[in-house]
């Protein structure tokens, strides 16, 4: 490769910048479009602010003191559940109901400016309260009212108009397939102003889904119990109301769950108190009847010691049997299939040796299950896991009850044995007294149970009265002062830079996708073939533009081309110039005609001969009359060489030989020895011979004429010749298949001016 070719591997930054500047209109259009879109965005898009709120989830004492169980489930898992509860559809639906978010208002405030209004909107909708509960589609009420208060109202569902009214006075009644709606003015309706407002009405479920898209709920830290709520909105009052209402509805729901447990406990205690009350009445009646029937008043003085000892054992028996009774009640409740997932009454948790921690843990798991059931399907994986944990804990509790029951029974046997010994020593005490003591002991058990349940009832009532919210508010909803996004000026500046980048990108992609070169400079980077000259696009519509006395950019460029050609034809006998191209349409014949005419202007004797005998154009381009041509001369002996030579009436010193009729055997004619003899004779007659030959990319005729030529001018055209053609003539040049080959770049653009500046061009 040549040194010029090697230099092409370097990036020509200056050339790239010059090329970009010549495409200034691309950048201008791109910048204008991007800035226009940015301006429209700033007009349409309302400035939004970030509103935040924080709450901490309180952990119950039972949960925090579960020991191994707490390590198993972890408080973080509980907070994850609470995040799900805070962001639940049920909570959002209640928020929409409380704040009336089924009805949203957007009012036109200027050119392409629309403002969302949580309060202060000019027109409101009145409708039956049951409509948002059942509404499945979104209704859009478009209201346009003039200064006189006459309104045009259109009701749409998606793109379908379902109701319409013109020039109506408020209040306006709209009858639709979804119900009857009344539009009324509000106290904020402006006076003597046009009003354009849109009211969007949706069901509470859709309103809840809209809130879910706008509100972000997450844990502040994986090691904390704090939940963050965030919402972006153009109306900070609206966002604050939504976040505060979410927290309120979540706390009310948690409070209701806690109260549900305590209410069930109260119900259980009341039922047990009623039964024990009946038993106590029955015991008192039995004691009264027994005393009357047996005449018993007091214990005899002589048995006081034994009776005192017996009383101690009885007290222990009462305590032990009370414990056993409570344990049995717990077991009966838990093992009852009807109570499989029912909360254990808190009244049973304080008695017995199994303690309250396991039962508290059991109730906490049940509460989580109740909360989760409101949000998920019964087949949910999390619910199944929770059921398994509940069943395992219930099994552990039952096993613990069985162990305690066995231990208490052993203790009871021991106490009763001691009692038997004591009773044996009281043989002198009447059997009636012993029966009386037994009755009194049963009554004492019932009295203690009754008192115990009364105490539990009071404690449960206190829990109901002092119940607190699960989520403690750290920060009520507050707005960040700095608006989100960018302002108008930064947005326009970014759009301007993006426009420049898009313009450059478009030019780069276009360059990658195109398969044609656009300038002489670009062609010179693609080939080692020397460039003889270039030719600008001529708008005159004439085929012969180089004539005596005429001056133009094209004429000047042909003069430069002629000068460069004279350097190539340096030999004394170098006279024959062969013009060709790769394909038709590249301007080969136009260049041939005018290059020959430019040579003739030097006062030289020049011959232009058309040897594109398959598709002759010379006679048509020069508007010459019919006459014998080259093929007729070569194919027969009827005409002499001077018979086929014509004088050009426009350009003195320029003669022409046309190609003649199209022969059936063009290749054989061009390879005829008579052609060599003809050119030998013509060399003696003319200073320059210009051959307009066939395109080498289509036929091989031109290669047959290389033997009679001294130099080859290869014509190519910008934005027409493809990279494939460039590769083709590079191969011809590398293989030296044409003599002294040089290029003419056709179709360039010249700068304005005249004289020496011609030949400089702008990229197309």
Textual characterization of the structure:
By secondary structure, this protein is an alpha/beta fold. Helices cover 50% and strands 18% of the residues. It has 25 helices and 22 strands. Strands 14, 15, 16, 17, 18, 19, 20, 21 and 22 form a nine-stranded mixed sheet that branches. Strands 3-2-10-5-6-7 form a six-stranded antiparallel sheet, with no helix packed on it. Strand 20, helix 25 and strand 21 form a beta-alpha-beta unit. The longest helix is centred in the middle third of the chain and has 59 residues, at 236-294.
Report the major sheet. Answer: 9 strands, mixed
Shape: elongated
Helix fraction by DSSP (H/I, runs of at least 4): 40-55%
- As a whole number of angstroms, the C-alpha radius of gyration is 54 Å
Number of alpha- plus pi-helical segments: 25
The CA-CA distance between the termini, in Å, is 29 Å
Number of strands: 22
Roughly what is the average pLDDT, rounded to an integer? 81
Q: Which structural class is indicated by helix and strand composition?
A: alpha/beta
**Strand-residue proportion:** 15-25%
What multimeric state do the chains show? single chain
Q: What ranges have pLDDT less than 50 throughout 5 or more consecutive residues?
A: 1-9, 61-75, 752-764
Q: What's the SSE blueprint?
A:
Blueprint: H1 3-7, H2 13-22, H3 24-44, E1 49-57, H4 61-64, H5 68-73, H6 75-86, H7 89-99, E2 103-110, E3 113-117, E4 123-126, H8 131-134, E5 139-145, E6 150-157, E7 160-169, E8 172-176, E9 179-185, E10 195-201, H9 204-214, E11 215-219, E12 226-233, H10 236-294, H11 304-335, H12 357-373, H13 381-425, H14 431-465, E13 471-479, H15 488-513, H16 520-526, E14 531-536, H17 553-568, E15 576-581, H18 588-600, E16 606-610, H19 618-621, H20 630-635, H21 641-644, E17 646-647, E18 654-657, H22 666-670, H23 673-685, E19 688-692, H24 701-705, E20 711-717, H25 723-734, E21 741-750, E22 761-762
Parallel strand pairs: 14-21, 15-19, 15-20, 16-18, 16-19, 20-21
Antiparallel strand pairs: 1-12, 1-13, 2-3, 2-10, 4-9, 5-6, 5-10, 6-7, 8-9, 11-12, 17-18, 21-22
């Amino acid at each position: 490769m040549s040194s010029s070719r090697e230099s092409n591997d370097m990036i020509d930054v200056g050339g790239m910048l010059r090329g970009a500047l010549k495409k200034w209109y691309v950048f201008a259009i791109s910048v204008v479009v991007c800035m226009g879109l940015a301006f429209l965005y700033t007009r349409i898009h309302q400035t939004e602010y970030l509103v935040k709120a924080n709450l901490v989830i309180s952990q119950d004492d039972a949960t925090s003191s579960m020991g191994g169980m707490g390590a198993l489930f972890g408080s973080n898992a509980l907070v994850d559940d609470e995040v799900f509860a805070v962001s639940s559809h049920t909570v959002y639906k209640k928020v929409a109901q409380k704040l009336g978010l089924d009805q949203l208002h957007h009012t036109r405030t200027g050119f392409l400016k629309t403002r969302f209004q949580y309060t202060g909107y000019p027109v409101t909708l009145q409708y039956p309260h049951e409509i948002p509960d059942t509404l499945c589609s979104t209704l859009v009420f478009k209201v346009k009212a003039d200064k006189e208060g006459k309104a045009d109202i259109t009701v749409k569902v998606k793109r379908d108009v379902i109701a319409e009214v013109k020039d109506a006075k408020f209040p306006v009644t709209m009858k639709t397939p979804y119900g009857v709606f009344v539009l009324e003015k509000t106290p904020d309706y402006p006076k003597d102003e046009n009003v354009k407002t849109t009211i969007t009405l949706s069901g509470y479920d859709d309103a809840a889904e809209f809130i879910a898209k706008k509100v972000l709920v997450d844990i502040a830290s994986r090691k904390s119990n704090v939940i963050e709520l965030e919402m972006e909105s153009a109306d900070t009052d609206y966002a604050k109301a939504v976040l505060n209402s979410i927290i309120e509805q979540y706390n009310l729901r948690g409070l209701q769950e806690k109260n549900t447990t305590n209410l069930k406990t109260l119900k259980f205690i009341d039922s047990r108190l009623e039964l024990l009350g009946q038993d106590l009445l029955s015991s008192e009646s039995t004691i009264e009847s027994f005393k009357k029937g047996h005449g018993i008043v007091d214990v005899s003085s002589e048995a006081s010691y034994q009776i005192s000892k017996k009383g101690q054992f009885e007290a222990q028996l009462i305590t032990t049997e009370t414990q056993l009774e409570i344990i049995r009640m717990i077991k009966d409740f838990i093992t009852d299939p009807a109570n499989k997932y029912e909360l254990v009454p808190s009244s049973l948790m304080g008695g017995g040796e199994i303690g309250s921690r396991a039962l508290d843990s059991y109730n906490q798991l049940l509460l989580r299950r109740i909360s989760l059931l409101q949000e998920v399907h019964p087949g949910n994986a999390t619910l199944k896991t929770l059921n398994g944990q509940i069943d395992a804990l219930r099994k552990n509790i039952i096993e613990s009850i069985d162990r305690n029951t066995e231990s208490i029974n052993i203790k009871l046997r021991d106490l009763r044995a001691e009692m038997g010994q004591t009773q044996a020593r009281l043989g002198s005490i009447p059997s009636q007294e012993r029966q009386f003591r037994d009755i009194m002991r049963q009554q004492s058990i019932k009295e203690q149970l009754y008192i115990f349940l009364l105490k539990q009832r009071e404690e449960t009532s206190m829990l109901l009265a002092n119940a607190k919210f699960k989520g403690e508010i750290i920060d009520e909803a507050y707005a960040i002062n700095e608006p989100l996004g960018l302002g108008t000026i930064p947005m326009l500046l970014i759009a301007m830079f993006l426009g420049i980048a898009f313009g450059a990108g478009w030019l780069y992609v276009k360059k990658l996708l195109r398969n044609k070169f656009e300038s002489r400079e670009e062609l010179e980077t693609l080939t080692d073939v020397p460039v003889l000259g270039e030719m600008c696009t001529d708008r005159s519509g004439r085929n012969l533009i180089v004539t005596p006395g005429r001056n133009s950019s094209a004429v000047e460029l042909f003069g430069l081309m002629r000068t460069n050609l004279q350097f190539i034809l340096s030999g004394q006998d170098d006279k024959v110039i062969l013009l060709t191209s790769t394909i038709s349409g590249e301007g080969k014949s136009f260049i041939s005609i005018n290059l020959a005419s430019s040579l003739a202007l030097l006062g030289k004797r020049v011959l232009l001969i058309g040897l594109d005998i398959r598709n002759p154009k010379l006679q048509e381009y020069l508007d010459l009359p019919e006459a014998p041509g080259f093929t007729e001369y070569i194919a027969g002996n009827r005409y002499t060489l001077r018979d086929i030579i014509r004088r050009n009436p426009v350009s003195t010193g320029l003669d022409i030989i046309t190609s003649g009729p199209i022969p059936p055997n063009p290749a054989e004619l061009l390879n005829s020895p008579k052609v060599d003899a003809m050119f030998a004779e013509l060399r003696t007659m003319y200073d320059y011979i210009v051959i307009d030959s066939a395109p080498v990319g289509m036929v091989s005729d031109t290669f047959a004429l290389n033997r009679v030529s001294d130099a080859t001018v290869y014509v190519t055209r910008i934005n027409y010749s493809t990279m494939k053609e460039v590769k083709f003539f590079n191969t011809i040049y590398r293989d030296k298949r044409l003599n002294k080959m040089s290029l003419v770049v056709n179709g360039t653009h010249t700068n304005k001016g005249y004289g020496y500046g011609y030949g400089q061009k702008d990229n197309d």
